[in-house]
Structure formats: C-alpha cells, structure tokens
Amino acid sequence: MGLRHWYEETILPKIIKCACNDERIEELRGHVVPLARGRVFELGCGGGLNQKLYDPKLVTGFAAIDPSPAMLDDALKAAQEKGWQADIREGRGEAIPFEDDAFDTVVCTYTMCSVDNQALVLKEMRRILKPGGTLLFLEHGRSPEAKVYRHQRMIEPVWKRVMGNCHLTREVTAAVQRSGFEVQDTSNLYMDKMPRWAGFMEWGVAVKAGE
How confident is the model at residue 18, as a pLDDT? Predict the structure, then answer.
C-alpha cells in the first residue's frame, strides 16, 4: 500500500466526515434532504450523514453508492441505526449501477465537487430518475465574485491533491441546468467562519423535465 493510497483510504475519510459533520452544514442539509420522497437514490452516501434527515413516512425505498469502502461502512451503520432496508453499494457516479427511470428522488450533497466527470455524473443522475422525478442538491462551488474565484483557482490544484479530488471552482446550479434539469428552486450563501474561497454553498430542487 503506497502512502497516497493509505492516506486516501485511512486518513481522508476521517477528515471528510469531520468537515461534513459541521452543525452549520447539517443545517443546510436540512433544507434539502427531508424533501426526498418515494424511491430515493443518494450519490456519495459515505458517512451516512444524511440518513437521519430522511422522513421514513415519505421514503418507500433507499439506495445509495459511494466509492470509499471506509465511508460505506459508516453508511451501513447509519442504515442499521435507522432501522430501514437500504441497498448501499460501492460505486461511482459516472456509472451508477441502477436501471433507467428507477427513482423518484436523487439526493446529492457535497459530492459533485470530487467526481471525475461532473457532466457525466449529472447525466447519470438524470437517467435513473423517473420522468418528473426530483434532484435535490447541496454543494460548495465556484464563487460568483471575481476576486474570490481567482483565489479558488490558485488554491485548487493543491486542494484537489489533499482533499480527494475536491474542486473549488465547479459551477453547481448552472451545471444542473445545462444537464437538462429544470431548476425550480435554488439558494446560496457564504458559510460563516469559513474562508470565502471554500465557503460558497449552493442548494436547490431540480426536476427531470422534457420527457
């Protein structure tokens, strides 16, 4: 096992879980995750941090993937604690292992920043949604301010190497729209007590329309 592999499999999952477990981020999760209903798919479920926010009265089935075995263990534990049946697998967003038109809701929080191909992942999420299905998203991304964006561009090459391919400059809502979703509601803010280059958050609701 090389040093990089050891870091990404052992240390990085702990850093990510700690960062994503911040109470301010959990508050933002509360804006989107409880809206999920029907058969739900979650992309990047590692850590299981969203599971406590789902309403079991609204969710009729739950499936999820994550590329990290260590993070998947936490997701499986979260499912056991919640006491519901869940199909949780290792996988990547560029090739989601589920059939077309399979889900009523797709949930994606703090995941599009680190995938290899954001456009392909969005295409895959759209593929597995039923016509009229809903994408619920929450991500950090490219700041609309030129000065902050310049800082993001300077920091990003190093940041990606130490934070598991996490990008600082990816568009979020605009990328969702480009992929064929109809964005019905969106909000954004800079997270308090966080550097602006890392703290621009976007979340929203989008629908698979046009079919």
Answer: 67
Name the residue type at position 202. E
Place of tokens 């993070």: 71
**b/e 128-146 (16+ beta carbons within 10 angstroms → b):** bbbeebbbbbbbbbbbeee
- pLDDT for 12-66, tens place per residue? 777 777 667 778 899 999 999 999 999 999 999 988 999 999 999 999 999 999 9
* C-beta atoms surrounding 39 within 10 Å: 18
User: Within 10 Å of residue 210's Cβ, how many Cβ atoms?
Assistant: 8
Which of 152, 155, 138, 141 is closest to 203 using CA atoms?
A: 138
**What per-residue confidence (pLDDT) applies to 69?**
86
pTM: 0.93
* Number of continuous H segments (helices) and E segments (strands) in the chain: 7, 7
Q: Do β-strands 181-190 and 200-208 pair in parallel, antiparallel, or remain unpaired? A: antiparallel
Give the torsion through C-alpha atoms of 37, 34, 165, 115, to 10 deg: 10
Of 98, 101, 108, 104, which is closest to residue 136 (Cα–Cα)?
Answer: 108
**What is the per-residue burial (b if ≥16 Cβ within 10 Å, else e) of 156-187?**
beebeeebbebbbbbbbbebbbebebeeeebe
Name 175's bridge partners.
none
